[in-house]
Amino acid sequence: MAVNDLLLVDNWTNTGQKIWSTMDPRELLLMKLLQIARTVRADRLLRFRASTYHFADYFKGFEKVEAVRQLFGDKTEQVLRNLKVEFTYLPGYMRVSDSDGHITVSSRYLRQGDKVDIYLDVIHELTHVKQFMEGKELFDIHYGYVDRPTEIEAYRLTIEEARRLGLSEERICDYLKTEWMTMEDLKQLAVNLGVRCNM
Predict the structure, then answer these.
(1) Looking only at Cα atoms, what is the longest distance across the chain?
(2) Per-residue pLDDT tens over the stretch 23-73
(3) Nearest to 116 by CA among 51, 61, 50, 171
(4) Predicted TM-score of the model (pTM)
(5) Which site from 14, 25, 96, 137 is most exposed, i.e. has the minimal number of CB atoms within 10 Å?
(6) What is the distance between the alpha carbons of residues 141 and 14, in angstroms, rounded to a whole number?
(7) Cα 107 to the chain's mean position, in Å?
(8) E-assigned strands of 57-181?
């Protein structure tokens, strides 16, 4: 099954105090802004589309992906059928809500992003959904992003899937890069995941 067969890319498209030494300043700023927005309920004002939809109606075929079945086992269809997704016009990629476990997706990213990256990000976020269901702290304040156990677990499954797809180590490193990560962060994440990045 090809990646293009799995995605329906439609035109819809608490944290506590952070430990300063382990947090990238950009991540800290973002987390603080989200915390303030939640406190004043500004998150409702920032959502252009606050409705949620059924994940399986927009992301087709993920119930057949072995990596996803590895996450949820016999309950895969049920979990994906009940999982909610919210589409936002705000920039970004994808994230899982730490309040109810639904996935928020940037509609711009769905329209303009690389299909393989989107596919891998869905696998990554579904790992966070499972972690949420297990009661894990998704945004553990004692770790920086690249060392956070929930991120390492999600990236490990994603990298395993990327290798299964035949992506080169260089392409995987390219996938791991984000705007909020420094080169040092990227190197550390690559080491944590056993990915060989030429930097």
Answers:
(1) 46
(2) 456 655 665 665 565 455 444 555 444 578 999 999 999 999 999 999 999
(3) 171
(4) 0.78
(5) 25
(6) 10
(7) 14
(8) 84-88, 94-96, 103-106
